[in-house]
Amino acid sequence: MAILGNIIKGVIDIKDSFSSDMNPVEAQNEVLEQLLNKAKDTEFGKHYSFKSILESENIAKTFSEKVPYFDYNKINKEWWYKLQEGTQNVTWPGHPKYFALSSGTTGKTSKRIPVTNEMIEAIKQAGINQVFALSHFNFEADFFEKEIMMLGSSTDLHENNKHLEGEISGITASNIPFWFRSYYKPGEDIAKIEDWDERVQHIAENARNWDIGALSGIPSWIELMLQKVIEHHSLNHIHEIWPNLQVYTSGGVAFGPYEKSFNALLGHSITVIDTYLASEGFMAFQARPETDAMQLVTDNGIYFEFVPFKPEYIKEDGSLIPDAPAVTLADVKLNQDYVLIISTVSGAWRYEIGDTIEFTDVERSEIKITGRTKFFINTVGSQLSVNKMDDAMQELEKKFGTKIPEYTICAKRGEDDEFYHYWYIGNDDKLNSEEVAEALDDFLKGANNNYKVARGKALKGVRVKLIPPHVFHEWSGANKKKGGQVKMERVMNEEKFQEWEDFVSSQL
User: Fold this and answer.
1) I want to staple 153 with a disulfide (CB 3.0 to 4.6 A). Which of 129, 167, 189, 396 is the partner?
2) pTM of the model
3) Same domain for 416 and 458?
4) Are residue 274 and residue 132 in the same domain, yes or no?
């Protein structure tokens, strides 16, 4: 009998039964006031008169009027660079102990995003709230005694000018609560290994020693880890070594494009739970099994604003124009893509995280990530977003009975000086690229009217090159590093695409 599991499950069920229904809009108003009060005496707070904002009749409206939007480049150039020099009280009281390194999907140069002690606590609390939400998924008591494989970046953080640096997954794993450490795998020693391939090799060698009930990590790297374990032990699927694996907590990117290739590694279906943990904070998590949408964390150190995702509000580099209109949680609508704006306990203010979201349930504050502002092609008016690209890949998987875990695209002129969409698609089957291109084009015409119009005018056509999926992983390794928060760029500009094509040529 799972005695400990019954105790844990009982605590979770009791906590859920006594939880009062929180009003997300009211919670957000409180969070904004708390943030402004805490930071009013910082350099940033004085510069933008947080005290006068707090004294205004409509704090949210005045805040949006007085404080401009910041993307990483702007806030780092004007404010965060001082933190690297050791300056105190810049955008948040004191000085951050950690900086999350994030090259995101746009290049080799790492962003350094401050992570305060308050943010560490906020992330922990959001994680605890997600555990309590498991009461809605009706897992048996013995599930709560199984171990959890958290596959992130190395927890061996590097010291730099009196602070520690690493990816957010490494920072959070190095701060796990003491009571959780016996459940956490691969364990502290293996998690500290910097080299991705070496770390995964150690995981494969130790896999039989663990009773894994849940996985957590970015889909592409979880897949590679599972493949390594299966290969090392000559298995048919992962459930032959981890028979009690029931849950995969996904995050970082949309799971849809990976679903088919991921399921091929399993012996039976498992529950997939989406989370939204970024370098800037724990934004949302899936709180109930009836939907794969995620509930925004509205009461815990992050204040959200939303800008309608329209081409006229977006600059060529993916950032917002200064006067793009923002709405609060009280005024969001269904069936509208929004650019997500956050202000946080790490001293990010009206910060453009770069993601676009859509509300699936306004009352519950449930969202889906629909793409990236930089993963949006509007060349010759095609207005093609990453969620439509993901949908297209899943349609190709169905049509051709295949798996497509990775892809990237660039819009550029061909040798005839006409515009084309150039696609590189990761696939191990011997498909006909022209047939794939035709099917891809037909699907996008039916799914996106702007694309259909563009195809009748200035967008000449679609060109597809099929390559092995491992080339995408090697590209990530060559340009950044494997594992952790690293994600493949879905859309490239022409300069980066030329680098990509040269790299692909060297690999084939």
Assistant:
1) 167
2) 0.78
3) yes
4) yes
**CB contact at 8 A, 272 and 285:** no
CA torsion through residues 435, 441, 443, 445, sign:
negative
Considering only residues 8 and 181, tell me which one the structure prediction assigns the higher pLDDT. Answer: 181
Three-state secondary structure string covering 180-214: HCCCEECCHHHHCCCCHHHHHHHHHHHHHHCCEEE
More confident residue, 491 or 205: 205
- Using alpha carbons only, how large is the chain's radius of gyration in Å? 23
Q: Letter for the amino acid at 436?
A: V
pLDDT one-digit tens code per residue, 68-116: 999 999 999 999 999 988 899 999 999 998 888 875 544 445 788 999 9
Asked if 14 and 64 sit in the same domain, the reply is yes
Tell me the CA end-to-end span of the chain in Å, nearest whole number: 54
Tens digit of each residue's pLDDT (9 = 90 or more) over 221-235: 888 899 999 999 999
Same domain, 178 and 249: yes
- Of the chain, the percentage scoring pLDDT greater than 90 comes to 39
Question: Measured between alpha carbons, how far is residue 485 from residues 168, 220, 221, 278, 495 in Å?
Answer: 8, 10, 9, 8, 24
- Residue with the larger pLDDT of the pair 105 and 57: 57
- Per DSSP, the three-state class of 467 is strand
Domain count, the chain: 2
DSSP per position, 21-77: PP-HHHHHHHHHHHHHHHHTTSHHHHHTTHHHHHHSSSHHHHHHHHS--B-HHHHII
Q: Which domain holds residue 449?
A: 376-507
The rounded distance, in Å, linking the Cα atoms of 48 and 493 is 35
Distance CA 324, CA 437 (A): 36
